[in-house]
Description:
The complex is a heterotrimer. Chain A is α+β, with helices and mostly antiparallel strands. Chain A has 13 helices and 14 strands. Chain A has a five-stranded antiparallel β-sheet. Chain A has a four-stranded antiparallel β-sheet with strand order 11-12-13-14. Chain A is globular. In chain C, the strands form six sheets. Chain C has an eight-stranded mixed β-sheet with strand order 3-5-1-12-9-10-11-20, sandwiched between helices. In chain C, a hairpin with a 2-residue loop joins β9 and β10. In chain C, α7 (217-228) crosses α8 (255-264), α11 packs parallel to α19 and α18 (647-666) packs across α19. At the A-C interface, α13 of A face α4 and α20 of C.
Amino acid sequence: MYNMGAYYEATSVAHAISLLQRHSGPTTKIVAGGSDVLIQMREGKLAGYTLVSIQRLDELRGVYMDDDETLRILPVTSFSHITKHPLIKEYINVLGYAVDQIGSPQIRNIGTIGGNICNGVTSADSASTLLAYDAVVEITGPAGVRRLPITDFYIKAGVVALMPDEVLTAILIPKESYENTHGHYIKYAMRNAMDIATLGCSLNVRLSPDKRAVERVRVGYGVAGPVPMRAKNAEEAGNGRPASMDTVNRAAKAALLDVNPRDSWRASKALRLHLAEELCRRAFTMAITRAGGSL
Amino acid sequence: MIQRKLITCTINGNKIQTMVDVRASLTDMLRNDYRLTSVKKGCEVGECGACNVMIDGECFNSCIYLAVWADSKHIRTVESLLGSAGELHPIQQAFVDEGAVQCGYCTPGFIMTALEIVQSGRQYTRDELKKLLSGHLCRCTGYENIVNAVEKAMKGTAQSIPETISRHRPATR
Amino acid sequence: MHVGQSLPRVDAYDKVTGRAKYTDDLVDKSALIAKVLHAQIAHGLVIKMDIGEALRVPGVVKIVTCFDVPDILFSTAGHPWSTDISHQDVADRMLLNRRVRLYGDDIAAVVAEDEIAASSALRAIRVEYEEYPHVLNPIEAMAPGAPQLHDAFLNNILKQTSAGRGDFEAAIQEPGLIRIEGEYETPMVQHSHLELPVSYAYIESGRIVIVSSTQIPHIVRRVVGQALGMPWGKVRVIKPYIGGGFGNKQDVLYEPLNAYLCQQVGGRLVKLEISREETFFATRVRHADKIRLVSYVRPNGRIVARSCDVYANQGAYASHGHSVTGKTMTAFRQLYHEEKAHRVTGHTVYTNTPAAGAMRGYGVPQAMFAVESHAEDIAAALNLDSLTFRRMNMMPVGFTDDFSKNVNYYDSLNQCIEKGRACIDYDRKRKLYQNQTGPVRRGVGMSLLWYNTAVWPISLEASSCRMVLNQDGSVQVQLGETEIGQGADTAFAQMTADVLGIPFHDVHMISTQDTDITPYGTGAYASRQTYVGGMSIRQTANMLKEKIISYAHELTRMQIYDLDIQNASIIHRPTGNALLSLGELATEALYSLSHSEHFSAEATYQCKTNAYSLGCAFAEVEVDIPLCKITLLNIVNAHDCGRLVNPQLAAAQVHGGMSMGIGYGLSERMLFDEKTGRLLNDNFLDYKLSTVLDHPRLETRFVENYEPTSAFGTKALGEPPAVPVAPAIRNAVLHATGVAINRAPLNPHELFTAFVSAGLIPTEK
Lengths: 295, 173, 765
């Protein structure tokens, strides 16, 4: 039994927004899958909160291709459905792979990709990939729809750029971002299931037509700072360079200029720094191989 | 005032309509209102898998699933597996034969995930099976005989036609 | 013959169908809900508690605080009671404690109509503390000036003992000895049984009835009586199926408080369920040990003298206390037999951490991690083959222990080693993996295992059994010894069937213990039940059989000494004829107009023996040095636990122990915030139990040497499998990398530190 103040169930996005307006306050929260919100409610952090549920909004489920070939991922899609979805497999397989590392099969059946980024935590397994693919978030509020690069969506640990009466309604991946691009995600955790990332690195590359050079590399990290981040120095060290171990090693070293992990009881800063370099190296190597390059 | 909501759902093949406390988890509802005590509480935060049930063909930890969300869903617990004369389902029989049961507390949850696996009609490798079962903790068996039992049940049903599973609507436009 | 066969568990059907009832499945919905308020400081005194606001929470029925409870100190250890005061467990806690000794100590309790009211009330209680400095580790706790937890225990030392053999100082004077020293640390871990600790209590006919998830119902009855200051006969304890215990439920956890709360609300039904988070800090844990070993060895590998100092973290309350450390010390003394002398000291020390109690292996996992890591270190230092080194020094065949009178009847250790090394292809891999370079390396390692069976001669060892014959020739069996998942009921049924000469399915095990009905037995611990329970089953079944045969003699006029029961029939041995079925006899006996008799037998067997249970584990690992990660590739445990009652269940028991050992070696550790003393990882996400994906195939091998002291040739198997796994993994990592890691678990944090200091991970950044 959850210590819940009140419960409102949205029947549409518009209804969700009006419920949020009507019951707005510091103790009102959207719940989608519940695998974060309900747990915090049980812990007492959200005890007595009012919940506005978008769990049953099928209009926010699914993955689609827009007319301009932008990939449109709806936020209440569960992780397991993301992984299984043909469009994801075809165009951004690394995202399906990344969310397949979350928790457990049952958690992946209930947890949603929207919830994963809206809770603002740095360890979110989908976030580093979405950052590394320059995802754009689409937010709907009383005034209509607005779009925001995902890097601007993250404000600080646990806080995202969502007003109290707004709902995340889509995550968009532009064609330019996923086209001819191959990625790899490494979740580093203490065990092989049921774990949160000690550090996560998602990296994708586009190679030159002859597969000899790195045309573009993008690197996203989770748990390397208070929010998921891009590693610009690592990317600069790789962009336009030969697809070689030397480039990979330079990029991995350069990543250390980007990351800023903290010491916590879950892992030391020293271990996380060491891993930041090592994971970048391994993810870069794998991504180049996937893209058809040879090292 | 306790806030309640009317829901209609199917539990183990029985259509029910009931007013549920909005604060209740599906575990609470199944255990307290329907005495389906195969649904166990081990952590209440979705980490152990003891409360695992099948909803519309997919498995969920019912402890972090609100009872109100069950509206219009088909829910199955391990109580639904027995034949009318009390005969065991092949998965249950495999658990007995392979010595996959010890304290028995995690068993119903594992069996429901095994049902999802068997119903898929697919043949998985042992490593794939382990990944599919990784949402369940067991402190007695070291998982060894559980994986053996699920593997046996999966292979045993390779020839038979999988039961119909109702799914979420296909997620393509 | 049923003993020796892999028969299906007697409770399997009920468990796979979800019909098996555990405590929370049985409680009536009308139950009031109790919850406990835990202190938010690690050490201090509760000065004041304001419950005014909490009492106004709708649905709250009663709040009791540490200022209200009876002034009675009690012990929670699930030991047989001793009528000798000097041998009794230390009584050092009350139902609720004003004096706070750990972050999370029990200081108040709420009884409410529902769980939300109860938890809301907990949040509304205001507590004022006088805070004292706290201490989290035993070495600091023993130092002068350290915060003191219990007035009667100077320097926080619950108990300190020493033992030895020979003249140590003289022995180490031998010229040419090589001195090898090592310090080994084991983590504080939690049992993590899947079923939470839960009980409910109500008053009926002026007596308190407690239904509880416990391993030790008869002991719970005694401790509740002691804690509440009431006659023990006024307490009735019922134990249904339980979802694992592993020693945690060999302590009396919250049953006394549950009973007290029930009294405080006029005997109404009160349920007290402990959450997973509370289970971590407020129940029991395994003692975290620091063990220092020094060995004096000849260059050929023969140990001449050795010493051992154990520092065990007792936590805030005594629970099983120094008994556990005592067993750590015994394991050190007995696995290896040096030529001249040894000495060992053990300190069990209070700290402001969760109370340490019994946990699968009872001090021996700690001992084996140290002793077997040290053995590997000695072999490496002397450049000896580690199996040769072990064989030169391990407990010899024929050894008799002066204290327990245990005899090492067989060459079990060598036989187990042979099975293990063959299974894992040890010799070949040991060579193959020498001198590896590169970032990913493999290794194989092993560890021996020393254990014994039951608690004689430290404590009483007795078991009682009752058997009742039905009209159809089937039999009900009751023991105080409990089914906790291990399969005890099935083993007992197999034994009963064999002694009585009836089919397995004609034995009805009454799984539920009820202290009003079930004969006295102390319960599931010390891997004792097939050994001691087997004795009482054999005795009781023989008594029942004697009565049946005597009646058969009346009916058939055949001589008593010529009659037997086989396959549920009365057999005339000289002719081999079946004279009548057991069912016919039983029906006749109950309804006879001339001699009606209800056949039952009940007996206590007091056991005054103990038995070694020996074995080993072999592990193969792959170490990814830059990732600081170990993949366990292969593992095998080999045991001589005597004759196997049920080979399939025996293997399953070993799997579970191995799994626990894998967690102990690789991932499990309770972590505390140094500043506040708060447990940081009190849930299954942050406390890293191994999942199915963290296990390789678990291989098991058995050597079946019939145990001469045992009723069915059996000896300990419940705990031993958990013991040798962690050191085998540690030794395999040493083989792979050349790095000796002396602190378990070998998780990435430990590996990172170790590899950096070994130069395997460069640190120029």
